[in-house]
Amino acid sequence: MSTKTLYNYVDLGLMDIKNIDLPEKAKRNTKARLIRANKRILGRSIDERSPRIDTRKDFGHWECNLVLGHKTKDDDVLLTLCERKTRRFIMIKIEDKTSASVMKEFDKLREFYGSKWNRIFKSITTDNGSEFADLSNLKQVSKTLVYYAHPYTSYDKGSVEGRTGLIRRYIPKGDRMDKCSAEDIAKIEVWCNSLPRKILNYKTPEECFDTEFDHIYWRR
Questions:
Q1: C-beta separation of 63 from 40 below 8 A
Q2: Under a CB-based contact definition with an 8 Å cutoff, are residues 178 and 75 in contact?
Q3: Cβ–Cβ < 8 Å for 82, 63
Q4: pTM across the whole model
Q5: What's phi and psi for 92, nearest 5 deg?
Q6: Beta-bridge partner residues of 111
Q7: For residue 91, what is the enclosing H or E element?
Q8: DSSP one-letter code for 58
Q9: Beta carbons within 10 angstroms of residue 14's beta carbon
Q10: In what order do the strands lie in the sheet containing 89-94?
Q11: Residue 110 to residues 21, 81, 114, 138, 140: CA-CA distances in angstroms?
């Protein structure tokens, strides 16, 4: 039985659940998408990105986002990344939403992956928030290409945006992020990466990422 059939049954009232009980279906819509251009783009536009990246056939192309807790300057935030092919998800809690804090974490990631960085992070697509203003500086220390989405167009990086919905099941919008321990964040990340995905032939993002990871580390 297909997913569409089950959704139709819900719409017809043939099941014991309603649309409001489905985390994803209730927020989907088919309205035309409008690209607004009244905001400057910080660097290389997504229009310059290779069409092949859209196919998700190649590993190493990421999307990046920042998830807020309580909208005050004294709360932590989450830096999130999602690899487009495997849907592998990374969550990093940082002290604020400044570009300096964001770049500090990327420096740590580069150090962690070392000589393999350029093969694991071939490109990063993010939005035009001021917190990502310095991200394009990665090209000075690596081969990573950074692309900025169209202004006010979250679906340009829909993979990482979709993971935000999963995070909100554990950290509702408005809750303080600094109340979450590193262990709490790690548990949410593991849960996100352990969900079998239909689009991955019911494998988990973790399994798919490990396969790609092995190819990089064991390929001569």
A1: no
A2: yes
A3: yes
A4: 0.81
A5: -130, 120
A6: none
A7: strand 89-94
A8: S
A9: 9
A10: 89-94, 77-83, 61-68, 123-126, 145-148
A11: 41, 14, 6, 10, 13
Whether the CB-CB separation of 207 and 197 falls below 8 Å is answered with no
Closest CA to 80 of 3, 137, 194, 157: 157
Collapsing DSSP to helix, strand or coil, 164 comes out as helix
pLDDT by 10s per residue, the chain, length 220: 677 777 776 776 767 777 766 766 655 554 544 445 445 556 899 999 999 999 999 999 999 999 998 877 889 999 999 999 999 999 999 999 999 999 999 999 999 999 999 999 999 999 999 999 999 999 899 999 999 999 888 889 999 999 999 999 999 999 999 999 999 999 999 999 999 999 999 999 999 999 999 999 876 5
Q: What is the DSSP letter of 203?
A: B
Handedness of CA 181, 182, 187, 193 (dihedral sign): positive
Amino acid (one-letter) located at 134: D
The dihedrals phi and psi of 168, each to the nearest 5 degrees, come to -65, -15
